[in-house]
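Quick review question:
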Protein backbone atom coordinates (compact mmCIF):
# COMPACT_ATOMS: atom_id res chain seq x y z
CA UNK A 1 0.00 0.00 0.00
CA UNK A 2 1.31 3.46 -0.83
CA UNK A 3 2.17 5.76 2.03
CA UNK A 4 2.50 9.48 2.52
CA UNK A 5 5.01 11.07 4.86
CA UNK A 6 3.32 13.38 7.34
CA UNK A 7 5.88 15.46 9.25
CA UNK A 8 6.08 15.27 13.02
CA UNK A 9 4.86 18.21 15.05
CA UNK A 10 7.76 20.72 15.03
CA UNK A 11 9.78 20.47 18.20
CA UNK A 12 11.53 23.65 19.26
CA UNK A 13 14.35 24.51 19.20
CA UNK A 14 14.63 22.28 16.06
CA UNK A 15 13.27 25.05 13.86
CA UNK A 16 13.51 28.46 15.53
CA UNK A 17 11.26 29.96 12.87
CA UNK A 18 8.34 27.71 13.76
CA UNK A 19 7.73 27.84 17.56
CA UNK A 20 4.42 29.67 17.18
CA UNK A 21 3.17 27.15 14.63
CA UNK A 22 4.26 24.26 16.84
CA UNK A 23 2.55 25.75 19.90
CA UNK A 24 -0.64 26.38 17.93
CA UNK A 25 -0.63 22.84 16.55
CA UNK A 26 -0.21 21.41 20.01
CA UNK A 27 -2.86 23.66 21.54
CA UNK A 28 -5.30 22.41 18.90
CA UNK A 29 -4.76 18.85 20.11
CA UNK A 30 -6.02 19.87 23.57
CA UNK A 31 -9.37 21.08 22.24
CA UNK A 32 -12.39 18.75 22.30
CA UNK A 33 -12.03 18.25 18.55
CA UNK A 34 -8.34 17.41 18.89
CA UNK A 35 -8.99 15.03 21.78
CA UNK A 36 -11.68 13.26 19.76
CA UNK A 37 -9.32 12.87 16.80
CA UNK A 38 -6.56 11.44 18.98
CA UNK A 39 -8.93 9.03 20.67
CA UNK A 40 -10.02 7.72 17.28
CA UNK A 41 -6.40 7.23 16.20
CA UNK A 42 -5.36 5.18 19.23
CA UNK A 43 -5.12 1.91 17.30
CA UNK A 44 -4.57 3.18 13.78
CA UNK A 45 -2.04 1.46 11.52
CA UNK A 46 0.62 3.88 10.18
CA UNK A 47 0.63 1.82 6.97
CA UNK A 48 -2.89 3.19 6.33
CA UNK A 49 -1.81 6.78 6.91
CA UNK A 50 -2.72 8.08 3.45
CA UNK A 51 -6.26 6.71 3.57
CA UNK A 52 -6.76 7.84 7.18
CA UNK A 53 -5.47 11.35 6.50
CA UNK A 54 -7.63 11.71 3.39
CA UNK A 55 -10.75 10.60 5.26
CA UNK A 56 -10.17 12.83 8.30
CA UNK A 57 -9.41 15.93 6.23
CA UNK A 58 -12.93 15.81 4.82
CA UNK A 59 -14.32 16.84 8.21
CA UNK A 60 -11.37 18.37 10.13
CA UNK A 61 -8.78 21.08 9.41
CA UNK A 62 -5.77 19.69 7.56
CA UNK A 63 -3.30 21.14 10.09
CA UNK A 64 -5.14 19.48 12.97
CA UNK A 65 -5.20 16.13 11.18
CA UNK A 66 -1.46 16.38 10.50
CA UNK A 67 -0.76 17.17 14.16
CA UNK A 68 -3.05 14.38 15.39
CA UNK A 69 -1.43 11.77 13.13
CA UNK A 70 2.03 12.85 14.26
CA UNK A 71 0.97 12.65 17.92
CA UNK A 72 -0.65 9.24 17.38
CA UNK A 73 2.62 7.92 15.95
CA UNK A 74 4.56 9.33 18.89
CA UNK A 75 2.17 7.69 21.35
CA UNK A 76 2.67 4.34 19.67
CA UNK A 77 6.44 4.73 19.90
CA UNK A 78 6.15 5.91 23.50
CA UNK A 79 4.47 2.70 24.65
CA UNK A 80 7.91 1.08 24.98
CA UNK A 81 8.87 3.70 27.59
CA UNK A 82 5.58 4.67 29.17
CA UNK A 83 3.43 1.55 28.89
CA UNK A 84 -0.32 2.09 29.08
CA UNK A 85 0.14 5.75 30.07
CA UNK A 86 1.43 6.52 26.58
CA UNK A 87 -2.10 6.43 25.16
CA UNK A 88 -3.05 9.39 27.38
CA UNK A 89 0.14 11.46 27.31
CA UNK A 90 1.54 13.99 24.84
CA UNK A 91 4.97 14.00 23.25
CA UNK A 92 7.35 15.84 20.97
CA UNK A 93 9.95 13.91 18.95
CA UNK A 94 12.91 15.19 20.98
CA UNK A 95 10.92 15.03 24.21
CA UNK A 96 10.16 11.36 23.69
CA UNK A 97 13.74 10.55 22.74
CA UNK A 98 15.11 12.17 25.89
CA UNK A 99 12.33 11.19 28.30
CA UNK A 100 13.09 8.95 31.24
CA UNK A 101 11.59 5.47 30.97
CA UNK A 102 8.76 5.04 33.49
CA UNK A 103 10.45 2.19 35.35
CA UNK A 104 13.59 4.30 35.83
CA UNK A 105 11.63 7.40 36.88
CA UNK A 106 9.60 5.32 39.35
CA UNK A 107 12.79 3.95 40.90
CA UNK A 108 14.22 7.44 41.36
CA UNK A 109 10.94 8.77 42.78
CA UNK A 110 10.90 5.91 45.28
CA UNK A 111 14.39 6.86 46.47
CA UNK A 112 13.34 10.51 46.90
CA UNK A 113 10.29 9.39 48.86
CA UNK A 114 12.41 7.10 51.08
CA UNK A 115 14.74 10.02 51.84
CA UNK A 116 11.74 12.06 52.99
CA UNK A 117 11.58 14.63 50.20
CA UNK A 118 8.33 16.63 50.10
CA UNK A 119 8.89 19.23 47.37
CA UNK A 120 11.28 18.51 44.48
CA UNK A 121 12.50 21.00 41.91
CA UNK A 122 12.75 19.07 38.63
CA UNK A 123 15.23 21.17 36.64
CA UNK A 124 15.23 20.28 32.96
CA UNK A 125 11.89 18.49 33.27
CA UNK A 126 11.34 17.87 29.56
CA UNK A 127 7.89 16.47 28.86
CA UNK A 128 7.49 15.55 32.53
CA UNK A 129 8.33 11.87 32.89
CA UNK A 130 10.17 12.27 36.20
CA UNK A 131 7.71 14.86 37.50
CA UNK A 132 4.84 12.42 36.95
CA UNK A 133 6.64 9.65 38.85
CA UNK A 134 7.41 11.99 41.75
CA UNK A 135 3.84 13.27 41.94
CA UNK A 136 2.49 9.73 41.99
CA UNK A 137 4.48 9.29 45.22
CA UNK A 138 2.62 12.27 46.67
CA UNK A 139 5.63 14.60 46.24
CA UNK A 140 5.02 18.17 45.08
CA UNK A 141 7.05 19.10 42.02
CA UNK A 142 8.24 22.35 40.52
CA UNK A 143 8.98 21.32 36.94
CA UNK A 144 11.24 23.76 35.07
CA UNK A 145 12.26 23.84 31.42
CA UNK A 146 13.27 26.70 29.14
CA UNK A 147 11.34 25.60 26.03
CA UNK A 148 7.72 26.90 25.92
CA UNK A 149 6.38 24.01 23.84
CA UNK A 150 8.02 21.44 26.11
CA UNK A 151 6.49 23.15 29.15
CA UNK A 152 3.06 23.09 27.51
CA UNK A 153 3.43 19.36 26.92
CA UNK A 154 4.53 18.80 30.52
CA UNK A 155 1.47 20.70 31.81
CA UNK A 156 -0.82 18.70 29.57
CA UNK A 157 0.70 15.45 30.79
CA UNK A 158 0.25 16.41 34.44
CA UNK A 159 -3.41 17.18 33.76
CA UNK A 160 -3.88 14.03 31.66
CA UNK A 161 -2.93 11.83 34.64
CA UNK A 162 -4.80 13.92 37.20
CA UNK A 163 -1.60 15.22 38.81
CA UNK A 164 -1.94 18.90 37.94
CA UNK A 165 -2.43 19.88 41.60
CA UNK A 166 0.99 18.47 42.51
CA UNK A 167 3.01 19.56 39.48
CA UNK A 168 3.68 23.26 38.87
CA UNK A 169 5.39 23.81 35.50
CA UNK A 170 7.49 26.93 34.99
CA UNK A 171 9.14 28.05 31.75
CA UNK A 172 12.56 29.33 32.82
CA UNK A 173 16.21 28.89 31.92
CA UNK A 174 17.59 26.67 34.67
CA UNK A 175 21.05 28.18 34.16
CA UNK A 176 19.64 31.50 35.38
CA UNK A 177 18.11 30.11 38.57
CA UNK A 178 19.80 30.86 41.87
CA UNK A 179 19.62 29.04 45.19
CA UNK A 180 17.06 31.56 46.45
CA UNK A 181 14.70 30.54 43.64
CA UNK A 182 14.50 27.07 45.19
CA UNK A 183 13.98 28.07 48.81
CA UNK A 184 10.59 26.36 49.06
CA UNK A 185 12.01 23.05 47.73
CA UNK A 186 13.76 20.59 50.02
CA UNK A 187 15.10 18.51 47.14
CA UNK A 188 16.24 18.96 43.58
CA UNK A 189 16.58 16.72 40.55
CA UNK A 190 18.84 18.13 37.83
CA UNK A 191 18.79 16.65 34.34
CA UNK A 192 21.29 18.66 32.27
CA UNK A 193 20.99 18.72 28.49
CA UNK A 194 23.66 16.40 27.07
CA UNK A 195 23.09 16.88 23.35
CA UNK A 196 24.20 19.73 21.09
CA UNK A 197 22.94 21.16 17.82
CA UNK A 198 19.39 21.21 16.48
CA UNK A 199 16.86 18.67 15.28
CA UNK A 200 17.04 14.92 15.23
CA UNK A 201 20.38 13.22 15.45
CA UNK A 202 21.80 15.89 17.73
CA UNK A 203 25.31 14.97 18.84
CA UNK A 204 25.93 13.67 22.34
CA UNK A 205 28.09 15.84 24.56
CA UNK A 206 30.78 13.91 26.40
CA UNK A 207 32.47 16.76 28.28
CA UNK A 208 30.49 17.22 31.53
CA UNK A 209 31.41 20.91 31.59
CA UNK A 210 29.71 21.29 28.20
CA UNK A 211 26.38 20.10 29.62
CA UNK A 212 23.63 22.68 30.00
CA UNK A 213 23.99 23.55 32.80
CA UNK A 214 27.66 22.52 33.20
CA UNK A 215 28.28 19.71 35.66
CA UNK A 216 30.05 22.01 38.13
CA UNK A 217 27.05 24.36 38.26
CA UNK A 218 24.62 21.45 38.57
CA UNK A 219 26.65 20.12 41.50
CA UNK A 220 26.48 23.49 43.24
CA UNK A 221 22.71 23.49 42.77
CA UNK A 222 22.49 19.95 44.13
CA UNK A 223 24.46 20.90 47.22
CA UNK A 224 22.09 23.79 47.94
CA UNK A 225 19.24 21.44 48.87
CA UNK A 226 18.85 18.85 51.60
CA UNK A 227 18.48 16.03 49.05
CA UNK A 228 19.46 15.95 45.42
CA UNK A 229 19.89 13.70 42.41
CA UNK A 230 21.94 14.73 39.39
CA UNK A 231 21.53 12.74 36.18
CA UNK A 232 24.71 12.27 34.16
CA UNK A 233 25.87 10.13 31.24
CA UNK A 234 26.62 6.47 32.14
CA UNK A 235 30.18 6.93 30.88
CA UNK A 236 31.06 9.59 33.45
CA UNK A 237 34.59 8.97 34.78
CA UNK A 238 34.60 7.80 38.38
CA UNK A 239 37.12 10.48 39.23
CA UNK A 240 34.53 13.10 38.21
CA UNK A 241 32.14 11.94 40.98
CA UNK A 242 32.34 14.40 43.90
CA UNK A 243 33.47 13.06 47.27
CA UNK A 244 30.15 13.98 48.87
CA UNK A 245 28.08 12.16 46.22
CA UNK A 246 27.03 8.54 45.83
CA UNK A 247 26.95 7.31 42.22
CA UNK A 248 24.29 4.90 40.98
CA UNK A 249 24.27 3.24 37.56
CA UNK A 250 20.85 2.04 36.41
CA UNK A 251 20.06 -0.53 33.73
CA UNK A 252 16.70 -1.68 32.42
CA UNK A 253 16.46 -5.22 31.05
CA UNK A 254 20.22 -5.28 30.59
CA UNK A 255 20.50 -1.90 28.85
CA UNK A 256 22.33 0.80 30.84
CA UNK A 257 20.10 3.86 30.90
CA UNK A 258 21.79 6.42 33.11
CA UNK A 259 24.03 7.30 36.00
CA UNK A 260 22.80 9.43 38.90
CA UNK A 261 24.78 11.30 41.53
CA UNK A 262 22.92 11.33 44.85
CA UNK A 263 23.50 13.97 47.53
CA UNK A 264 22.20 14.07 51.10
CA UNK A 265 22.01 10.33 51.85
CA UNK A 266 24.80 9.54 54.34
CA UNK A 267 23.93 5.83 54.35
CA UNK A 268 24.33 5.42 50.58
CA UNK A 269 27.20 3.35 49.24
CA UNK A 270 29.83 5.22 47.25
CA UNK A 271 28.93 3.24 44.10
CA UNK A 272 25.87 1.18 43.30
CA UNK A 273 24.40 -0.74 40.37
CA UNK A 274 20.63 -1.12 40.10
CA UNK A 275 18.95 -3.54 37.72
CA UNK A 276 15.38 -2.79 36.70
CA UNK A 277 12.57 -3.76 36.56
CA UNK A 278 13.31 -6.17 39.43
CA UNK A 279 15.12 -3.49 41.44
CA UNK A 280 18.11 -5.64 42.41
CA UNK A 281 20.92 -3.48 43.77
CA UNK A 282 24.62 -4.21 44.20
CA UNK A 283 26.77 -1.86 46.25
CA UNK A 284 30.44 -1.89 47.04
CA UNK A 285 33.56 -0.83 45.24
CA UNK A 286 36.04 -2.08 47.84
CA UNK A 287 36.61 -5.72 46.79
CA UNK A 288 40.11 -6.87 45.89
CA UNK A 289 40.85 -7.28 42.16
CA UNK A 290 39.85 -10.77 41.00
CA UNK A 291 42.52 -13.24 39.89
CA UNK A 292 43.18 -14.00 36.22
CA UNK A 293 43.01 -17.62 35.14
CA UNK A 294 42.08 -20.19 32.50
CA UNK A 295 38.67 -20.61 30.91
CA UNK A 296 36.32 -22.65 33.07
CA UNK A 297 33.11 -24.44 32.18
CA UNK A 298 31.00 -21.30 32.68
CA UNK A 299 31.31 -17.73 31.50
CA UNK A 300 29.48 -14.87 33.21
CA UNK A 301 28.62 -11.62 31.45
CA UNK A 302 28.02 -8.95 34.13
CA UNK A 303 25.17 -6.51 33.60
CA UNK A 304 26.31 -3.25 32.03
CA UNK A 305 25.44 -1.29 35.17
CA UNK A 306 27.75 -3.55 37.19
CA UNK A 307 30.56 -2.95 34.72
CA UNK A 308 30.02 0.84 34.68
CA UNK A 309 29.97 0.92 38.48
CA UNK A 310 33.28 -0.98 38.61
CA UNK A 311 31.70 -3.77 40.64
CA UNK A 312 32.94 -6.72 38.58
CA UNK A 313 35.27 -7.72 41.44
CA UNK A 314 32.27 -8.06 43.77
CA UNK A 315 30.53 -10.40 41.31
CA UNK A 316 33.69 -12.44 40.74
CA UNK A 317 34.03 -12.96 44.49
CA UNK A 318 30.37 -14.02 44.72
CA UNK A 319 30.90 -16.56 41.93
CA UNK A 320 34.31 -17.76 43.13
CA UNK A 321 35.39 -16.77 39.65
CA UNK A 322 38.33 -15.28 37.82
CA UNK A 323 38.93 -13.02 34.84
CA UNK A 324 40.09 -14.21 31.43
CA UNK A 325 42.08 -11.00 31.04
CA UNK A 326 42.76 -8.29 33.62
CA UNK A 327 41.20 -5.63 31.36
CA UNK A 328 38.06 -7.52 30.23
CA UNK A 329 34.82 -7.76 32.24
CA UNK A 330 34.13 -11.44 31.55
CA UNK A 331 34.18 -13.79 34.53
CA UNK A 332 34.83 -17.52 34.26
CA UNK A 333 34.23 -20.26 36.84
CA UNK A 334 34.29 -24.03 37.08
CA UNK A 335 30.90 -24.31 38.77
CA UNK A 336 27.64 -22.53 38.15
CA UNK A 337 26.38 -20.13 40.82
CA UNK A 338 23.06 -18.31 40.35
CA UNK A 339 23.41 -14.53 40.37
CA UNK A 340 21.06 -11.69 39.51
CA UNK A 341 23.87 -9.47 38.28
CA UNK A 342 25.35 -11.51 35.43
CA UNK A 343 24.15 -13.81 32.64
CA UNK A 344 25.65 -17.32 32.68
CA UNK A 345 26.78 -19.30 29.63
CA UNK A 346 28.10 -22.84 29.41
CA UNK A 347 31.27 -22.83 27.31
CA UNK A 348 32.01 -25.70 24.93
CA UNK A 349 35.07 -24.35 23.10
CA UNK A 350 37.83 -21.83 23.80
CA UNK A 351 40.02 -21.18 20.76
CA UNK A 352 42.37 -18.58 19.30
CA UNK A 353 40.42 -16.25 17.05
CA UNK A 354 40.29 -17.60 13.50
CA UNK A 355 37.39 -16.96 11.10
CA UNK A 356 37.89 -20.06 8.95
CA UNK A 357 38.09 -22.30 11.98
CA UNK A 358 34.94 -20.79 13.41
CA UNK A 359 33.11 -21.19 10.09
CA UNK A 360 34.07 -24.87 9.88
CA UNK A 361 33.04 -25.55 13.47
CA UNK A 362 29.64 -23.90 13.01
CA UNK A 363 28.99 -25.84 9.82
CA UNK A 364 29.93 -29.09 11.52
CA UNK A 365 27.45 -28.38 14.32
CA UNK A 366 24.76 -27.02 11.95
CA UNK A 367 24.51 -23.68 13.72
CA UNK A 368 22.15 -21.32 11.92
CA UNK A 369 21.33 -18.88 14.72
CA UNK A 370 24.52 -17.22 15.90
CA UNK A 371 24.67 -14.62 18.67
CA UNK A 372 27.92 -12.66 18.65
CA UNK A 373 29.11 -10.83 21.74
CA UNK A 374 32.36 -9.00 22.16
CA UNK A 375 34.55 -7.26 24.71
CA UNK A 376 38.07 -6.25 23.87
CA UNK A 377 37.77 -7.18 20.19
CA UNK A 378 37.82 -4.94 17.11
CA UNK A 379 35.75 -7.40 15.05
CA UNK A 380 32.20 -6.23 14.32
CA UNK A 381 29.50 -8.86 15.00
CA UNK A 382 27.62 -8.27 11.73
CA UNK A 383 30.84 -8.53 9.75
CA UNK A 384 31.64 -11.86 11.42
CA UNK A 385 28.16 -13.22 10.69
CA UNK A 386 28.56 -12.37 7.01
CA UNK A 387 31.88 -14.18 6.88
CA UNK A 388 30.85 -17.39 8.66
CA UNK A 389 27.40 -17.60 7.01
CA UNK A 390 25.68 -19.65 9.74
CA UNK A 391 23.19 -22.21 8.47
CA UNK A 392 21.32 -24.97 10.23
CA UNK A 393 18.72 -25.76 12.91
CA UNK A 394 20.91 -25.16 15.98
CA UNK A 395 22.01 -22.04 17.85
CA UNK A 396 25.17 -20.90 19.60
CA UNK A 397 26.81 -17.86 21.16
CA UNK A 398 30.35 -16.82 20.31
CA UNK A 399 32.31 -14.41 22.50
CA UNK A 400 35.06 -12.39 20.86
CA UNK A 401 37.50 -11.34 23.55
CA UNK A 402 41.04 -11.63 24.81
CA UNK A 403 42.48 -14.40 26.96
CA UNK A 404 45.58 -13.20 28.75
CA UNK A 405 46.04 -10.60 26.02
CA UNK A 406 45.54 -12.92 23.02
CA UNK A 407 42.55 -12.50 20.63
CA UNK A 408 40.26 -15.44 21.32
CA UNK A 409 36.79 -16.85 20.70
CA UNK A 410 34.65 -18.76 23.15
CA UNK A 411 31.65 -20.76 21.97
CA UNK A 412 28.78 -21.74 24.20
CA UNK A 413 25.11 -21.42 25.02
CA UNK A 414 23.06 -19.55 27.61
CA UNK A 415 22.32 -21.45 30.78
CA UNK A 416 18.59 -21.95 31.40
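Suggested answer, residue by residue:
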Amino acid sequence: MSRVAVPDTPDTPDDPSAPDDAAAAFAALLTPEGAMLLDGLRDYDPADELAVATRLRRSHPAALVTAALAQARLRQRAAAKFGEDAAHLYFTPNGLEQATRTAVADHRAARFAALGAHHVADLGCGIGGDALALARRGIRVRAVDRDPLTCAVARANADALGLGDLIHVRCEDIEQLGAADLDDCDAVFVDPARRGGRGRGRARIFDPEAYSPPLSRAIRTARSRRYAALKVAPGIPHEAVPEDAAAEWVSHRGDVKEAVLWFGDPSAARVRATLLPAGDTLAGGTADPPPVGPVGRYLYEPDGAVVRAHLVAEIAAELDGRLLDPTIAYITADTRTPTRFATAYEITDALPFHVKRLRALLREREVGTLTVKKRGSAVEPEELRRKVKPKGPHSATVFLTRIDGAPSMLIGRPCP
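Why it works: The CA atoms of residues 121 and 188 lie 5 Å apart. The two ends are 43 Å apart (CA to CA).
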